[in-house]
Amino acid sequence: MKLYKLTTTICLILACLIFGNQLIAQDKNDNALFFNIKYGIQFPGGDLADRFGTHFTAGIDPELYLANGHWFLGLQGNFIFGSDVKENVLAGIQTSEEQIIGNDMLFAEVIMRQRGLNFGGHVGKLFAFNSENNHTHGLRLTMGAGLIMHRIAFKDDRNSALQLRGDYAKGYNRKAVGAYTHQFIGYQFLSADRRLNFRAGFVFHQGFTSSVRSTDFDTKMKEEGNRLDLMNGFEVGWILPIFFTKRETRFYF
Length: 253
Description:
Elements: H1 2-19, E1 22-24, E2 31-46, H2 48-51, E3 55-66, E4 71-82, E5 100-101, E6 107-108, E7 110-128, E8 136-156, E9 176-190, E10 197-211, E11 227-244, E12 250-252
Antiparallel strand pairs: 1-12, 2-3, 2-11, 3-4, 4-7, 5-6, 7-8, 8-9, 9-10, 10-11
């Protein structure tokens, strides 16, 4: 239900941006504040591929656009989510049929999912192409760093699995936290009338994480050592620009 609400919210925001209010500025050399609302698909690599499969990201990047030189300076945030969990961390509390007996003496319907967050900062540059229509578009390159967290989440609709209630779930969720770096290469387009603004391209993440749990209940040990968690994929984003101009600014509805 939470994922459904998140997806619905993102779709409503994008619809409002496309068909709703538009902030129009008259000079393509104006500096601006961009809000990049994005969605992507990620393919795991390194240690992350042993724990999770293909997953998705959604987030928003506020950034300052400096028209003189086409530079970007901004923040980045992503919600990471997926349903392909490869590690069966609940094997120790399951029956031979891989079922968990709930407190109602029935099989608990427990689903494992991937959840995570990353946030940080980035810098970048737009290598603009010549445009006869006065559009601002070209090859966008950005790079940055920040913090990343990922874990296994447990969904128990009937709340019948006592083994996963409260802090007990923390002993199974494999939570890992650490620093990460990221890069983006793709295409960005800002129309001359500012009505159509988007970006799309390939994104790469390198996470340098480690477990924050003192003991994993299923192994009775702590996960030692550092992890290399890779996420590589494709991302699209709609850009809501707010331009800083001395000229007349018009709002369209």
